[in-house]
Request: fold
Amino acid sequence: MSFWIAIIFITLIVCAIAFYPLLKRNKQIDASKRDSLNKAFYFDRLKEVESEANKGIIDDPEQTKLELQQNLLDDIPENAENVQGEKLKLGKAWFVSLILFVGGISFAVYSNVGSWFSTSMLDTTHQKLDGFYERLKTQTTNPLSTEEMNQFAMALRVDLQKNPNDDQKWYMLGQIGMALDDGQLAHDAFSKAAELKPDNIEYKLSHAQLLLFSNAEEDKNQGEALLKEIIRKDHTNFNALSLLAFHSFEKEDFKMAAMTWGMMLKLLPDDDPRKVTIERSFNMALSNLSEKDKQELQLQKSEKK
Reply:
């Protein structure tokens, strides 16, 4: 309600500034000039009459003066005030009409492009939320387009305004943010999901992965801290170990990378095809260490779980 009051108030101010001249009385500058010229002409003519009377050119100067005075009076409009009043009334009528016209146009434009229209569009998109969830079931054969993903994200945002404690929908919004390459959206959504369910490792793992892909060093450190927290709670979490190992190798912490890959090797059975790749990564990190660190890690690797 306060929004509409503000809009009406602003419209009235703009109209008052723009159309104020319609309320002003006409000073009739042209009429004033005419009256001044008539008076000047009268006095000039009066001097001429007196001069001609002295010379004997005019037989009856008094009659001529009376005629001049009558002509001067005839040139002064008797209904000047009435005309001015009529113009003022007409100006007021135009002033009110223009205010109503501007207000009507403003409302029409707002109805089409303002927040009312946007709200209507959001409600329409929100009604498609269930349909988007159904589409996810066929994501492999019929993936969502970028436009549909944006609509899905918008529908989730509208729904989360009504249900802000739904951690699963926050997590889904974070996944959509990653799919759309919208890091800020994904970060905010994953943070909210983890805040609502602090014991959910999946939420923290997705958030940590996002942070590690960031270019900001602060985000990388936060992601690494999340990974270590996950591993302390579940030292067999293969995904967390893998992310920590690659992150450590990337920042040239070869000892941490080798230790983490060594832990992963202990978790995998001998016939697991991933073991060859991890063994190669372990040896690559090991080659960058000192002899003392190599011997220590080799000893840890040879120990049975």
About this structure: The two ends are 68 Å apart (CA to CA). The chain is about 80% helix and 0% strand. The chain has a mean pLDDT of 76. The longest helix spans residues 80-113.
